[in-house]
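Regression test case RT-17, inverse folding.

Input:
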């Protein structure tokens, strides 16, 4: 045996995994999947041999020596881009852990960041206003009118973004 010391540098973070494996054939409509390293939502499901529609999953069986394949067409949950992938139905796909958390809006800074009140009374100041024009104007208008607003923040794979707004009344 050697008397040398071995030091291993950990490159993983101590938290939970950002994704989990799931068999491609079991992923369904409104489910999530990672395509090209991006967290995506599957909008529609068609179990047919042909790809029909805009956003879907289709499963087709090939010849006797092939494998059934799943054709995923999904939308990136953060930037709205359409992505596609074809995977044998018996193979595993990465599925992101997706969370939604509500925070009360406290302030909007001039540089486009929001200040949010967390459940434990601390503030969260690292999120930008959303890029969606409709949601952006609803947040700015409601805040300008002095309404109490609660924003929903979606998080997956180390990214976060404001995705919805609730008006809980005037301040």
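Golden output:
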């Amino acid at each position: 045996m050697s008397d040398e010391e071995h030091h291993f540098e950990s490159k993983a973070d101590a938290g939970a995994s950002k994704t989990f494996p799931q068999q491609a054939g079991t992923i369904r409509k409104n489910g999530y999947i990672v395509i090209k390293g991006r967290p995506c939502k599957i909008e529609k499901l068609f179990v047919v041999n042909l790809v029909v529609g805009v956003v879907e999953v289709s499963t087709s069986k090939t010849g006797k020596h092939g494998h059934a394949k799943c054709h995923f067409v999904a939308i990136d949950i953060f930037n709205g881009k359409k992505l596609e992938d074809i995977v044998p139905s018996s193979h595993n796909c990465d599925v992101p852990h997706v969370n939604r958390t509500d925070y009360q809006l406290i302030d909007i800074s001039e540089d486009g960041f929001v200040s949010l009140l967390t459940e434990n009374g601390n503030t969260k100041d690292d999120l930008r206003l959303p890029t969606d024009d409709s949601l952006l104007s609803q947040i700015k208008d409601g805040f300008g009118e002095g309404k109490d607003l609660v924003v929903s923040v979606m998080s997956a794979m180390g990214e976060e973004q404001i995705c919805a707004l609730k008006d809980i009344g005037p301040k």
